[in-house]
User: Fold this.
Amino acid sequence: MKLQLLYSIAIYVLAFVASTQAALSPEVYWKIKLSNAQMPKVVKDFLPEAENDARATKEKVYYGLHQHGILVFNAATEYQIHELKREIPNMHLRQVTEGSSDLQDNFLYKPYFLEKDLEKGKVINFPSLKNKNEAPFWPREFVESIPFSSEKIPQILNHFSIDSNSKDAQTIKETIKFCEAPTNKGQKQKCATSLESMVDFSLSMLGTNNIQVIATDVQGENQMLQKYTIEEVELIAEGINMVCHKLNYAYAVHFCHGGGSTKTFMVSMIGADGTKVKAVSICHKDTSFWNPKGLPFVVLKVKPGTTPICHFLQDDQIVFLP
Assistant:
């Protein structure tokens, strides 16, 4: 009898905890699950301020600028290469690139670079590290009531009142198709449609709740392309990590992935216009499973698995470190 009573109490407690967590706000959920991790500003800024905020959100698709960090598994397209080629539309950009070592490679800037390039005093050309994707986080119970599947595209477009022939509709389709693609070799990956699911995946992948969470910080609005001078390079961690890249969608959807050994750096830089940036840089130590025709190898003219390859993260991309 006592055993049955204890069993019943245990079941009741578990059910109570589960029901309570389901009703928790994303912010409270974070505090419970990642009690040692400070929430980055880029997460705080896009949390719903009230319970009904999600239902009041504008019916639109939110767009960012660049997603170089998730292109390593695909062959580089002519369009992607063209975007990086030296196209100088005005005198300002001529001045920005004048005297740059990128001139000899015919690139306006390099989204990928080698670890040795992360050194104090080095001057680089780089675009804005502000992604400008303002898609808000919605509570998990709300987003899970909306389909997220290629088979349900008509229902999704209808839910957001999006014309099926519009650019937004095409973006919805492309993002979902990207999320449904098979897991890349050597990776663990997931499209997190809520902050709660992102937190859960980080716990599962890193195997601990003693986690540090960091993101790039840009102080002030900066130009689309300018020279940056590296002022300090700090090694934050070495080993596995999880990076979440914000995708174009009607609410905050992040492609989270990790696998293989990495080095994570915090790089302090100052732009020619005075913009101060503390940029997260990830250096991947094993690139042997990347697409040999991918953009990193086109830009750097190296082969997969021969040398670590690094890239900066924009300010809405989130890094989870054990």
User: Anything to note?
Assistant: Residues 34 and 209 are 6 Å apart (CA to CA).
